[in-house]
Amino acid sequence: MEMKKMLLAASVACLALAYVASGRMAYQLPAEVETILRSPVVTSFDCTNRIYGYYADVDNNCEIFHVCHPIADDVGNLAEMAQFSFVCPNQTVFSQETLTCAHPDDAFPCDQAPTLFDVVNAEFGRIPQP
């Protein structure tokens, strides 16, 4: 009986690890996501050579955005760059200026979002001086 419990625990642990690892994969989006998007998903955005931050996906009309998260190894070197993908609610887009999903009329122009990538994301982790 103990062996069965150990095997069950090991199986659960493996499934949990696989679930966490899949969360680091880009474009893991909800089923039927294309029913709320203006066009089919384009999987061209990549976090390579980007700093930690939030990024509008211009190729997807900014209806999708990504979080790029560098993961360091034991000595502080970059081990991998995790990319998490999210979809804005129906009829909204990701505004690179405010890092929020907003009505398209209120959002920073999608085609200009890359001009703010470095500026806005460089602010993460900074403590304002009094």
Automatic annotation (TrEMBL):
<dbReference type="GO" id="GO:0005576">
    <property type="term" value="C:extracellular region"/>
</dbReference>
<keyword id="KW-0732">Signal</keyword>
<dbReference type="InterPro" id="IPR036508">
    <property type="entry name" value="Chitin-bd_dom_sf"/>
</dbReference>
<protein>
    <recommendedName>
        <fullName>Chitin-binding type-2 domain-containing protein</fullName>
    </recommendedName>
</protein>
<dbReference type="InterPro" id="IPR052976">
    <property type="entry name" value="Scoloptoxin-like"/>
</dbReference>
<dbReference type="InterPro" id="IPR002557">
    <property type="entry name" value="Chitin-bd_dom"/>
</dbReference>
<feature type="signal peptide">
    <location>
        <begin position="1"/>
        <end position="22"/>
    </location>
</feature>
<dbReference type="Pfam" id="PF01607">
    <property type="entry name" value="CBM_14"/>
</dbReference>
<feature type="domain" description="Chitin-binding type-2">
    <location>
        <begin position="44"/>
        <end position="112"/>
    </location>
</feature>
<dbReference type="GO" id="GO:0008061">
    <property type="term" value="F:chitin binding"/>
</dbReference>
